[in-house]
Amino acid sequence: xxxxxxxxxxxxxxxxxxxxxxxxxxxxxxxxxxxxxxxxxxxxxxxxxxxxxxxxxxxxxxxxxxxxxxxxxxxxxxxxxxxxxxxxxxxxxxxxxxxxxxxxxxxxxxxxxxxxxxxxxxxxxxxxxxxxxxxxxxxxxxxxxxxxxxxxxxxxxxxxxxxxxxxxxxxxxxxxxxxxxxxxxxxxxxxxxxxxxxxxxxxxxxxxxxxxxxxxxxxxxxxxxxxxxxxxxxxxxxxxxxxxx
Length: 245
Prior knowledge:
Strand order of the largest sheet: 1-4-5-8-11-12-13
Order of helices and strands: EHHHEEHEEEEEEEEHHEE
Helix content: 25-40%
Distance between the termini: 31 Å
Structural class: alpha+beta
Radius of gyration: 18 Å
Number of strands: 13
Number of helices: 6
Mean pLDDT: 93
Largest sheet: 7 strands, antiparallel
């Protein structure tokens, strides 16, 4: 997927957790094989060329495309599974894959799971007694500094996803034009139970810009967000404060 996944797993029966970890890693490699837009022989590439139908692909393809369609509907088209007319669900695959891997480990009995999918994180449980998971949010204007720290205290599951230009440049596309999104935002961080949606909502909100994104994010259930503009304005949704610390 062009990025690095890392795992921090606590507790559980060691053999069961190790087996689940091995399976999770194998599935991530399989996801890359199936959904890669760079591999000519991936199922996604063959589907885009009309060589396969959705029914002939692995069941996960229909699942991901369904999630992408839902994200497009709920974002009024600001999230899209196409790029310049070609099928490309990249914007939802990474979050979905990271969430699924974390859920596998939690189901295997791990008491604490953190899966970092290229900077977007899915958390389950706790890393230790009386100690919640905490995720630092990079400051796009001050390399190496943190803009905030998100705490998962009191949450059995939590995801933190950030979209922006600080690390990868102008890579987020405006689905209406097919060109890099022209926006006054430098980063959008979304906090939500599921990484699938946190990642998709961060991408859509960034493309919207600071005038439209805050109200839209406020309208989504179980979603909080931190937005930072090029003018160093920091804006948060109404319930964000309870996750900071």
